[in-house]
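Supplementary Methods. Inverse-folding protocol.

Structures were first reduced to a discrete structure-token string of length 754. This string, shown here, constituted the complete conditioning input.
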């Protein structure tokens, strides 16, 4: 071996191999201890995983393994196989060259690894490193672990850095998204929720950044005019519930301050903008802002209801008294009694979403089917507190009185709802006045009679009773004086005409074609009904189903039943027969289609058709008419079933009744709807029709009918039967309805023999 070769081997043996061995002895324990230290220091496996992902760590492992391979290659001293000429020397010493290079790179990565470890040991340096890649959700989760660490360790520089960083992240996320609903990633909501709980649990030093603080203000956007989403409201609600459950009242107050400022500065009402035609050009923006404001206010009224639910009266007193201006201006609570009552009316059971409040503002330990109603109740009780709060404020408010009544609605259904809700408000206010602990902790006076006399203010219950009386008076006034709707009256007339004439049409088939006089006469009349006038007005207190058709249906039904009764009253020969003997009995009568007709009531001919009754056919021109061996059968389903149900009347065409429609009674001037039948109808407004009202009041012992209407339908129908007619009546026997035994088929004789 040459001297140069010995020198090179000594370099590998005395320098490279010891260095690699030494670094291996240092690096492995160092890495192991570092991972354990990170886990111990931050109590986080996420930061350990983040350390594993560092390129410096990964490359250090790769270089260390490569160095060991180079040592192995140098020790094996694999001889050269081929003659490469001038490259022989390089190839023969290649393992040594690789070993030297690997040693140098390993030393470099050792220092880089040590630097990385020092960064992970220093939370502030680690934050700077992680912030470079915060767009990656995993990195952001690692940053959240630093946030939890800063809270637990009260590391104030780190706390300030993280607070600023998270706020900037939210601002960047909302950037260039004006008027959009902002939904943050779920993991960001989880970060805020977890951080909030740790803040609540941790015993803070007096100088901690998070003392009496909350991170919830970061959701309030004061620059981009973005909209808070339902997901964000839900997270804020969960965090506020945490703070209340842990007794962190200062955090609630701090949040209220931010919310007050946000509503005042960023959710102010938008003024109307007019064009040259005096039309509002920004109505959509105004409506959108009003929706935002209403959502924000509803949230904080739910918060007030929750504080009432948890009996946090002192805290509630601090919130409702907060103001940031002089003269005092309150953004999140009502300024006047009008605002109080209007807010109370808005807390009602939703029609579309029956779990509206439960879904948005769940209360703990609130179980049962009426969970949503329980939340609404506590929100209303909170408004009851705000009702009494008006008594403690300066009575003058921009030239008016804080206790002035609200403008009442004009819709009857809304007025009816107001009356019911005002009764509930009276009950809640009475309960609150009796709760001395609540009054004391909120800071209200005891509200004794002397206090109201001294301050010259009406008692709360008297004030509510007065509003209730005014509401009732307005309700009665509108209900009495409003006119009958012309459109609804015309609708009533049209439906009446169609319904009644359709009922009359089939009976023309059994009306005698010839006039005759007779003492056997029956009369059918229309209907006169006193009804609530609001059924026929535009402004209704409740819904009225079938107001336009029920009376017409009554007239049509009475018409059908009345005619069927006259068939029961005429002289006839009656046979009670089994169902399958009916048409055999008709055959025995030997009637001709030119002279006779069969009139039936309540007969189901489908059964006879299905049983293939010979000679029975359906008349295609008429819906429920048939022929039996060319004899016309007219069937009516609506009838007096106990009298003529399931019955066949066989008589001559000349003996059919004469059905006449006479002119309507002229006692009331009705509008004629059909000239042929003299069908007439009208709706009388008894508030305006004084003569008719007095006549009706005299008939009903002077009862007041000013709020009523008289619905009149006149159909003066006369039914004449000849005095001496020959009629066969074949009734289908029923073992359930008929007594005795049925006749035999042999009992039925030919028509002539009768």
């Amino acid at each position: 071996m040459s001297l140069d070769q010995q020198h090179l081997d000594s370099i590998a043996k005395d320098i490279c191999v010891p260095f690699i061995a030494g670094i291996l002895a240092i690096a492995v324990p160092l890495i192991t201890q570092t991972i354990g230290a990170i886990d111990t220091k931050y109590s986080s496996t996420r930061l350990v995983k983040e350390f594993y992902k560092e390129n410096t760590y990964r490359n250090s492992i790769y270089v260390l393994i490569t160095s060991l391979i180079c040592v192995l290659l140098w020790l094996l001293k694999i001889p050269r196989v081929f003659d490469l000429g001038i490259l022989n020397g390089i190839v023969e010493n290649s393992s040594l060259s690789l070993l030297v290079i690997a040693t140098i790179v390993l030393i470099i990565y050792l220092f880089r690894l040590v630097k990385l470890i020092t960064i992970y040991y220093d939370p502030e340096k680690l934050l700077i490193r992680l912030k470079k890649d915060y767009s990656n959700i995993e990195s952001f989760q690692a940053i959240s672990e630093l946030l939890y660490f800063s809270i637990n360790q009260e590391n104030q520089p780190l706390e300030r850095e993280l607070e600023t960083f998270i706020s900037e992240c939210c601002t960047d996320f909302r950037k260039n998204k004006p008027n959009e609903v902002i939904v943050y990633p779920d993991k960001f909501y989880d970060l805020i929720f977890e951080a909030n709980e740790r803040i609540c649990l941790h015993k803070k030093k007096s100088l901690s950044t998070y003392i009496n603080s909350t991170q919830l203000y970061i959701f309030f956007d004061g620059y981009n005019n973005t909209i808070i989403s339902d997901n964000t409201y839900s997270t804020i609600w969960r965090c506020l519930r945490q703070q209340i459950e842990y007794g962190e009242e200062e955090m609630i107050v701090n949040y209220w301050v931010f919310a007050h400022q946000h509503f005042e500065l960023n959710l102010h009402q938008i003024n109307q903008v007019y064009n040259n035609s005096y039309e509002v050009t920004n109505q959509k923006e105004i409506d959108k802002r009003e929706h935002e404001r209403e959502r924000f206010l509803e949230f904080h009224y739910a918060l007030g209801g929750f504080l009432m639910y948890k009996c946090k009266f002192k805290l509630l007193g601090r919130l409702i008294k907060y103001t940031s201006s002089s003269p005092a201006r309150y953004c999140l609570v009502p300024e006047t009694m009008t605002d109080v009552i209007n807010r109370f009316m808005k807390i009602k059971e939703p029609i579309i979403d029956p779990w509206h409040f439960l879904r948005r503002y769940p209360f703990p330990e609130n179980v049962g089917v009426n969970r949503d109603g329980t939340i609404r109740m506590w929100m209303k009780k909170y408004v009851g507190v705000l009702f009494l709060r008006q008594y403690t404020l300066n009575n003058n408010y921009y030239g008016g009185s804080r206790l002035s009544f609200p403008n009442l609605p004009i819709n009857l259904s809304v007025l009816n709802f107001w009356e019911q809700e005002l009764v509930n408000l009276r009950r809640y206010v009475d309960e609150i006045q009796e709760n001395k602990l609540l009054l004391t902790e909120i800071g209200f006076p005891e509200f004794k009679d002397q206090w109201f006399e001294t301050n010259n203010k009406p008692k709360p219950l008297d004030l509510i009773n007065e509003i209730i009386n005014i509401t009732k008076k307005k309700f009665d006034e509108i209900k009495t004086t409003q006119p009958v709707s012309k459109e609804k009256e015309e609708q009533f007339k049209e439906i009446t005409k169609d319904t009644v004439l359709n009922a009359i049409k089939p009976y023309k088939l059994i009306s005698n074609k010839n006039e005759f006089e007779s003492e056997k006469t029956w009369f059918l009349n229309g209907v006169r009904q006193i009804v609530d006038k609001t059924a026929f007005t535009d402004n209704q207190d409740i819904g009225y189903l079938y107001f336009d058709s029920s009376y017409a249906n009554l007239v049509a039904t009475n018409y059908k039943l009345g005619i069927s009764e006259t068939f029961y009253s005429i002289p006839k020969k009656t046979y009670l027969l089994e169902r399958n003997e009916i048409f055999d009995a008709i055959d025995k009568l030997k009637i001709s289609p030119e002279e006779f007709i069969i009139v039936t009531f309540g007969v189901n001919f489908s059964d006879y058709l299905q049983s293939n009754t010979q000679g029975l056919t359906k008349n295609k021109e008429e819906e429920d008419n048939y022929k039996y061996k060319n004899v016309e059968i007219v069937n009516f389903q609506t009838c007096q079933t106990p009298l003529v149900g399931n019955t066949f009347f066989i008589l001559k065409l000349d003996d059919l009744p004469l059905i006449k429609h006479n002119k309507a009674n002229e006692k009331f001037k009705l509008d004629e709807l059909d000239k042929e039948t003299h069908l007439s109808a009208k709706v009388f407004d008894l508030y305006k029709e004084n003569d008719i009202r007095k006549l009706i009041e005299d008939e009903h012992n002077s009862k007041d009918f000013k709020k009523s209407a008289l619905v009149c339908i006149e159909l003066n129908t006369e039914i004449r039967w000849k005095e001496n007619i020959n009629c066969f009546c074949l009734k289908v026997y029923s073992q359930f309805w008929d007594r005795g035994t049925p006749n035999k088929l042999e009992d039925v004789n030919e028509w002539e023999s009768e």
